[in-house]
Amino acid sequence: MKQLAPSILSADFSRLGEDVASIEKGGAHFIHVDVMDGHFVPNISFGAGVMKSLVGRTALPFDVHLMIEHPEKYIGDFVTDQTEYITVHQEACTHLHRTVQQIRDLGVKPGVSLNPATPVSTLECILSDVDLVLIMSVNPGFGGQKLIRSALDKIRQLAEIREKTGKDFLIEIDGGVTPDNIVQVAEAGTDIIVAGSAVFGAEDIPGRVKEMTDRLEKNA
Ligand code: DX5
Ligand code: ZN
Asked: What is the pLDDT of residues 77-87, one digit of tens each?
């Protein structure tokens, strides 16, 4: 089943609890938590405290995306009973295997993410150790950007590798997904779809979540 993970980077931070309740009402599957440090990406978003303020306020699991340098120093801060995935960037990890192991040892599913210019081949030696591969379809740092179409080729490449090798990692796409391109994105082989501005920028947030999840169910 294809799943939708709205990114709270695009939520109204002055009403974060209400916005999260809205995506839950609409049938979202995860809360995508975009953590940015102003070094790995040219923007600062929020820390673990903001995510932890949602623990117990929603039943949705957290899909944590660390767009930070030295993620190994901060992984522990994002572990809660609701944290399902913690994803680190291949480009930010000198010792990626050790960092992936660290996440798993903390009882959380590890994910690895690639920026648009980083080839899938860089994951060859880690694909057996991760539960999720997050393909960036925008240059990380901001919501509301246009989807970079070459990301769909990387999704297809990963789906093919998974088919051939029998590995069971999930494939997630992140950036520029809208109701108009969500079916195409899903058909490329994506399992979990992140959407920020398309969801939280809508007048009717629950309605937009339902519209996007319905399209996933009907067409992909
Ligand atoms: C970008 C973040 C994405 C972004 C998605 O750096 O990693 O998750 O918030 O936002 P949209 O869907 O608006 O591109
Ligand atoms: Zn993200």
From this structure: 999 999 999 99
CA distance 6 to 91: 24
Q: Which ligand is nearest to the CA of 202?
A: 1
3-state secondary structure at position 33:
strand
Contact status, residue 172 vs residue 192, Cβ threshold 8 Å: yes
| Nearest listed ligand to the Cα of residue 6 | 1
Instruction: Tell me the domain boundaries of the chain.
Output: 3-218
Ligand 1 probe mutation, 9, 41, 85, most atoms within 8 A of CB: 9
Q: 137 pLDDT exceeds 80?
A: yes
CA 122/CA 202 separation, integer angstroms: 37
As a CATH number, domain 3-218 is 3.20.20.70
Q: Which of 142, 89, 96, 139 is nearest to 116 (CA)?
A: 139
Across the range 200-215, mean pLDDT stands at 98
Q: Please choose, from the candidates 146, 117, 120, the residue with its C-alpha nearest in 3D space to the C-alpha of residue 133.
A: 120
